[in-house]
Amino acid sequence: MITEKTDPKLKIAMNQIIHHLKNSNRILLASHANPDGDAIGSLIAMGLSLDVLNKKTTLYNESPVPAVYNFLPAVERIVQHIDRKNVYDTAIIFDCSDLQRIGKDVSIVSRIPVIINIDHHATNTHFGDFQLIDTFACATTEIIYRLLKKMAVRINKAIATSIYTGILTDTGSFRFSNTNRSVFAICEEMSGLGVDPHSVARHIYETYSLGRIKLLGMVLSSIEISCNNKLSIMILTKKMLDETNTQPEDINGFVNYAKGIEGIKIAVLIKELASNNEEPEKPGRFNVSLRSDETVDVAAIAASFGGGGHSVAAGFSIESTLSDIKSKIINLAENCLGI
Ligand code: AMP
Ligand code: MN
Ligand code: MN
Predict the structure, then answer these.
(1) CA-nearest residue, atom 7 of ligand 1
(2) CA 229 to CA 261: how far, in whole Å?
(3) Which residues keep their CB under 5 angstroms from ion ligand 2?
């Protein structure tokens, strides 16, 4: 296990960030658009901790908080707009491999004098003035946990629940390859601080809308298998979202079904964000999720399209036609799989 205790670079970064935060008063906290449990959990865990230190904070995410996370404490403090009149001395960016991942307000955030980058993506571009990047951490909230320990902030039940949520969701409920001893050690401690794992799991995995389940049915029906049964591709169209009255947040986790098929090494979910009016030959805007069984580095595939992520879970955005995206992915997959 590599932590700030064994990696001098992480230790220096932590000390510098702690020193800087002591002298900061107005802090903007932001995480990536279309947030997951780690992006939301990071905002809340750090926001509540900075309250204890009497810092003025704004918690920002471009997208609405997915409904399944509404049970989290202080979730109502997350705003979707940054008031240009607000003056900040520091911004802390969580769970973003590059600054653009925060979305439309990137130009406002870039003007904040000091930017702190806290993340666990291997493809992190090291943006900002201070970087606390631990690619061995299972979630950004694991890094926040270590930072809070070093800051001697008392982790209360609300903070613990946010840390736990980030870890639970980013490890795929303790199933992904980033699940290790330290994950269980932290979660054991969080449970001792009052986190109720059953209650958290029920909120996150058992409060889906009927629309989401119908949408899942449509996406599952789209599965196509190629590359000698090693590649699975699923498609989600804007029309499916409209028909089931669902939002992009309802797609979280779908790609794992494509990955769960026996023998699959690369799983892909192509999501149409803006409709091309049912004209498949016309380019549209797509977001692509990639997953691998660990034998293939899908972050490299994502990077070749300008995206990023981890070797086993990555993504990119692209403006193209569906058939073009599919054939490009199949070509790259054939290369990776040696076909
Ligand atoms: P997702 O498939 O959206 O769950 O994302 C999987 C991983 O890929 C996450 O670690 C994301 O940070 C990363 N990722 C997804 N989309 C993009 C993108 N457009 N650019 C950079 N990284 C991305
Ligand atoms: Mn994330
Ligand atoms: Mn994360």
Answers:
(1) 314
(2) 9
(3) 36, 38-39, 95
Is the domain defined by 210-336 classed in CATH 3.40.190.80?
no
Ligand (nearest to CA of 98): 1
Question: Which candidate, 289, 236, 232, 233, places its Cα nearest to that of 262?
Answer: 232
Between 229 and 248, the higher pLDDT residue: 229
Domain extents in the chain: 8-205, 210-336
Q: Is 125 in the pocket of ligand 1 (CB under 6 A)?
A: no
289 CB within 6 A, ligand 1: yes
Would you place residue 59 in the very low, low, confident or very high pLDDT band (cuts 50, 70, 90)? very high
Q: Are strands 26-31 and 114-119 parallel, antiparallel or unpaired?
A: unpaired
Max Cα separation, the chain? 58
Neighbours of 79 (CB within 10 A): 11
Task: Supply the pTM of this predicted model.
Answer: 0.93
Distance 41 CA to ligand 2 centre (A): 10
Cα 136 from Cα 151, distance rounded (Å): 21
Helix (H) or strand (E) holding 91: strand 90-94
Q: How far is the CA of 73 from the centre of ligand 3 (A)?
A: 19
Residue 88 has which token pair?
A: 């900040």
Residue 95: half-sphere exposure toward Cβ, Cα within 13 Å: 30
- At residue 280 the predicted structure's pLDDT band, cuts being 50, 70 and 90, is low
99 in Cβ contact with 112 (< 8 Å): no
- The residue contributing the CA closest to ligand 1 atom 13 is 309
Whether the per-residue pLDDT at 11 is higher than 80: the answer is: yes
156 lines ligand 1 (CB under 6 A): no
Q: Is the CB of 121 under 6 A from ligand 1?
A: yes
pLDDT at 282: 77
Ligand 1: centre distance to CA 288 (Å) = 8
Q: Which CATH class is domain 8-205?
A: alpha beta
**Mutation probe of ligand 1 site: the residue of 133, 177, 252, 316 with most atoms within 8 A of C-beta:** 316
- CB within 8 Å of 64: residues ≥ 6 apart: 80, 247, 249
